């Protein structure tokens, strides 16, 4: 059963009537371009086939109710909240995400009361953007109920505001833009500064390849300090250099820029500048149909995130190393880091071997067994019914 059907069915059970509509949004994998979004740089995500659906009906009493479906159909309902009373910091846990969206849309004058029922299968805490898929589906539902048509770029910015100010996670624009704009069989080449986006065809299977997604089960969170500290470091470096963002450093200016910075900021800048370059090179190779050649770029991205940006962890390193040792063409951690998922580019006929090697490497170290699936570029957010 689709997540939209699950959400609709649960809505009927909880509210005794059909929802006015159901909207859903996917999680994402970022092929390459990590920690570049809040530096005005380049990213290259695709949507995964796991989604969060929100079944919704309008209310006329300024109140928002939110229920979420857990495994085996058990529903959990948050305390109802008056939309005019929503303030940052007042709500924690999973209800903060839909409430934060209601708060930001209230600020935009775009929402009224609503009953929302959520169902989803994006693994939580896996760095696959489950929270952003929830926020995107909620935003589309609330805007849809209000009959308000807005551009995806505005919706993405409002969701960022909800994350930053209401939830307290200083994240960028990557995840929600991917969830809203990705399309089947494509990666989304996004220039975060200009907002320009290009759908680049991405069909690994045509080349006998797969993107194996490895959820390490080491859970991560961006409300904790590691992510924010990196972001602040990048902003400080840009300020010292007198530029709007690290995006403004070209690769051939990198050494000169590094020489002007205090030692502790240099690795951050090096990562961002080289990572932007790796995104551009990946896009160029995909356009030339040279899929196999992106492997070394993925691995270089991982090394940079591990050694310079320092956002990897043992589980992510072991996943990437074991996958490569078993024949993957390249492998890297994805998302914010400190846990979550990695990807490996593997030949279809080597997939089982790579999976077995990663599983064995985790067992050897007594890590929780990883979960793996093939990352097939899937549809972005929209209304289901
Ligand atoms: C997380 C954030 F939400 C994104 O904005 C992005 O910064 C990513 O980490 C790292 O590339 O997913």
TrEMBL record:
InterPro entries per UniProt: Galactokinase, Galactokinase_CS, GalKase_N, GHMP_kinase_C_dom, GHMP_kinase_C_sf, GHMP_kinase_N_dom, Mevalonate/galactokinase, Ribosomal_Su5_D2-typ_SF
Keyword Translocase set for record: no
Gene3D superfamilies: 3.30.230.10, GHMP kinase, C-terminal domain
Superkingdom to which the source organism belongs: Bacteria
Domain GHMP kinase N-terminal: 97-180
Record keywords, A-Z: ATP-binding, Carbohydrate metabolism, Galactose metabolism, Kinase, Nucleotide-binding, Transferase
Name of the protein in question: Galactokinase
């Amino acid at each position: 059963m689709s997540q939209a059907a699950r959400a609709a069915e649960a809505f009927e059970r909880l509210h005794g009537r059909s929802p006015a509509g159901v909207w859903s949004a996917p999680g994402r994998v970022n092929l390459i371009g990590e920690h570049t979004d809040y530096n005005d740089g380049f990213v290259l995500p695709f949507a995964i086939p796991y989604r969060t659906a929100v079944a919704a009906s309008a209310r006329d009493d300024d109140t928002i109710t939110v229920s979420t479906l857990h495994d085996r159909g058990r529903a959990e309902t948050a305390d109802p909240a008056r939309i005019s009373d929503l303030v940052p910091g007042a709500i924690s846990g999973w209800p903060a995400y839909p409430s934060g969206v209601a708060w930001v849309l209230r600020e935009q004058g775009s929402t009224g009361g609503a009953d929302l029922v959520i169902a989803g299968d994006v693994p939580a805490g896996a760095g696959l953007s489950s929270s952003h898929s929830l926020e995107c589906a909620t935003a589309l539902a609330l805007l849809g109920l209000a009959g308000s048509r807005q551009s995806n770029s505005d919706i993405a910015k409002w969701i960022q505001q909800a994350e930053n100010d209401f939830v307290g996670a200083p994240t960028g624009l990557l995840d929600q833009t991917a969830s809203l704009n990705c399309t089947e069989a494509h990666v989304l080449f996004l220039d975060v500064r200009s907002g320009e986006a290009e759908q680049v065809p991405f069909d690994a299977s045509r080349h006998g390849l797969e993107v194996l997604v490895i959820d390490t089960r080491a859970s991560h969170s961006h409300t904790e300090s590691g992510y924010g500290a990196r972001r602040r470091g990048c902003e400080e470096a840009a300020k010292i250099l007198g530029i709007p963002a690290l995006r403004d450093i070209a690769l051939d200016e990198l050494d000169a820029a590094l020489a002007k910075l205090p030692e502790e900021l240099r690795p951050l800048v090096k990562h961002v500048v080289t990572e932007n370059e790796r995104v551009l090179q990946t896009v160029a190779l995909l356009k030339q149909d040279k899929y196999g050649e992106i492997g070394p770029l993925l691995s270089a991205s991982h090394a940079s995130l591990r050694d310079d940006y320092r956002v990897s962890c043992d589980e992510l390193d072991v996943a990437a190393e074991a996958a490569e040792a078993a024949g993957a063409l390249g492998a890297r951690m994805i998302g914010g880091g400190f846990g979550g998922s990695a990807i490996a580019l593997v030949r279809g006929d080597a997939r089982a071997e790579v999976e077995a090697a990663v599983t064995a490497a985790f067992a050897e170290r007594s890590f929780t067994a990883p979960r793996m699936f093939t990352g097939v570029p899937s549809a972005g957010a929209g209304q289901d019914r």
